[in-house]
Amino acid sequence: MSRGDEEQHVDLEGFMAGVERRNPGQSEFIQAVREVAEDIFDFIADKQEYHRWQILRRIAEPDRIVSFRVCWEDDNNCIRVQRGYRVQNNNAIGPYKGGIRFHPSVNESILKFLAFEQTFKNALTGLPMGGGKGGANFNPKGKSDGEVMRFCQSFMTELYRHIGADVDVPAGDIGVGGREIGYMFGQYKRITNQFTGVLTGKGREYGGSLIRPEATGYGAVYFMENMLKTRGDDIEGKTAVISGSGNVATHAAEKIVQLGGKVLTLSDSEGFIHDPDGITQEKIDWVKAHKTRRRGRISEYAQEYKNATFHAGARPWSVPCDLALPCATQNELLGDDARTLVKNGCVAVSEGANMPTDLDGVHVFKEAKLLYAPGKASNAGGVAVSGLEMSQNSARISWKEEQLQQLLKDIMLGIHESCREYGQRGDYVDYVRGANIAGFKKVADAMLAFGVV
Ligand code: NDP
Ligand code: 2IT
What we know:
The protein has 18 helices and 14 strands. It is α/β, with parallel strands linked by helices and about 450 residues long. The strands form three sheets. A seven-stranded mixed beta sheet has the order 9-8-7-6-10-11-12, sandwiched between helices. NADPH dihydro-nicotinamide-adenine-dinucleotide phosphate binds near residues 244 and 354.
């Protein structure tokens, strides 16, 4: 019997041994696959079709990975060389769709985990989008606008041949916001001479959708609201600890404040700030202007607002709170952080980031029966509004803000209901299990319809 034949009959550990053998050293990818496989193996135990057609095995092998050199010239006329990627994981239910990340840590493992997660997340939105992710090990910090523009143009000069409005539609992620999307869209249009919805998160003037910038953070809070409602509770009067201070974190903070909660922390890669007075809308606006637009550091918040303290090199999870929203990056909330949150009486965790909680932390939250939403469910509001931007671009119309706000709420509620449908275990909803199974089932059933492709 060949190795391939053996894998027809493996259990969870046998499957994971194969994933580890085929993806040496790719710890983030292996972690993401294990988190999904733990639930899927249980779900498909009595569903021979999914085994016979090797569905999970196929979803855990990207359709293709493109890796390319990106050369650009910095302001000192030095030639710089970066590595760019696009991981097209699965297009069973729609064109590949997912963000682009510019961060020095970007590598194949991180983009493969993100593209894998995106496949389930996009299925959960109910919109026709497959899963992909891309990026480069480019560090936008400290770069001039001209340098960022030249980098983006060079990146798109290769990427353009792999994407398209019906093929693969990238968007933003860490280090990629409106400015970068503008430079990349401009270059795509220049090379192809086509004005299509090939990227989302565009500026309003050239086809962007209303509420796309807010959608991920707002959606994560709507998801938290939906979870609290199952226990007859809401956000009013609750304290919230948030990590990050970028697009997702600032909009999550804004929605918590709008719903009557009190935000105590924000963070960046250098540490966190704790403001016992609460981070009000005015203070969030200061963070947006200072941190996001002028690319300052969160430590400066403590100089601006004197009652706040800055904690260098630390994450905010030790600050007692009712609600926690990790909105910075992967593996920023570890098992011990999860135990601290549970001990301090935290009742709900909604992930704005992708895979911010490590596997140990996930198990801690599940055991404590906390209301715990994994990113692939709770941060899907961003890509959902990206999907709505694609629809508006295809129809060449713009929808009104109220309409989009309502659609975002409806989609987040729909994801919550899907998680409940597949994650209800007695009186407890295991949202991780629910999200994994609901996302998997949709993609898997489409793949079954296609046969072996
Ligand atoms: P931004 O670039 O706007 O902000 C990222 C924030 O996270 C910054 O505060 C940054 O701090 C911090 N951060 C980044 N890397 C690290 C690190 N290694 N350690 C600690 N802090 C870090 O990105 P977004 O807000 O868009 O993305 C945040 C998370 O949300 C990511 O996991 C992303 O994948 C996820 N996400 C984003 C969506 C979107 O629509 N933008 C949609 C769904 C998920 P610093 O400035 O110091 O680097
Ligand atoms: O992780 C994500 O869902 C995103 N970065 C947004 C993807 C998108 O296509 O809007």
